[in-house]
Amino acid sequence: MRKWKLKCNKASSCEFTGSRLYLPPENEFSEVEVDIIKTSREKLIYLNAKGLEFQAEQKDSSEHAILPVAIHVDDQEHCYSAFLLQGNQRILLPEKACSLIISSLLDHKKVTIFVSNRSTVLTNEHFIAHYSKLT
């Protein structure tokens, strides 16, 4: 069973201290890893491709690659546009999507993310205990 894992990076300056809460994929060759990164300034969620790269479907006005991401919470679908980062193996979710995912997991709701013909179900296993150490 997949479980959330926490890694903390303590630095001499608060500015460089950060934590990573992540859910590894069950299958290293075809699934998505979920990363919640907390720094002194912000909290971000990345989706990391394991195996094949993500394929951009469009570009924004600044020529950044954009991918549609669907997040299902229980039976409700929420759609977002996310940035595909250089290398095509990492996606940065928008702030509203991050808030939705975190609040849903804290409320013990079922969360499934669909992106680029892949999906991943986010388990609650160890999430709340680790998340409380992240904030």
What can you tell me about this protein's structure?
With 135 residues, the chain is mainly beta. The chain has a single domain, classed as Immunoglobulin-like. Helices cover 15% and strands 44% of the residues. The protein has two helices and ten strands, in the order ββββββββαββα. Strands 1, 2, 3, 4, 5, 6, 7, 8, 9 and 10 form a ten-stranded antiparallel β-sheet that branches. A hairpin with a 5-residue loop joins β5 and β6. The protein is globular. The mean pLDDT is 87.
Structural class: mainly beta
Question: What is the chain-wise order of helices and strands?
Answer: EEEEEEEEHEEH
Strand content range = 35-45%
Distance between the termini: 25 Å
Total helical segments: 2
Question: Could you name the CATH class?
Answer: Mainly Beta
Using the 3D structure, state the CATH architecture.
Sandwich
Tell me the number of structural domains.
1
Average pLDDT confidence is: 87
Shape: globular
Poorly predicted ranges: none
List the topology elements:
Elements: E1 5-9, E2 18-23, E3 32-39, E4 43-49, E5 58-59, E6 65-73, E7 76-84, E8 90-92, H1 95-106, E9 111-115, E10 118-122, H2 127-134
Antiparallel strand pairs: 1-2, 2-3, 3-4, 4-8, 5-6, 6-7, 6-9, 7-8, 9-10
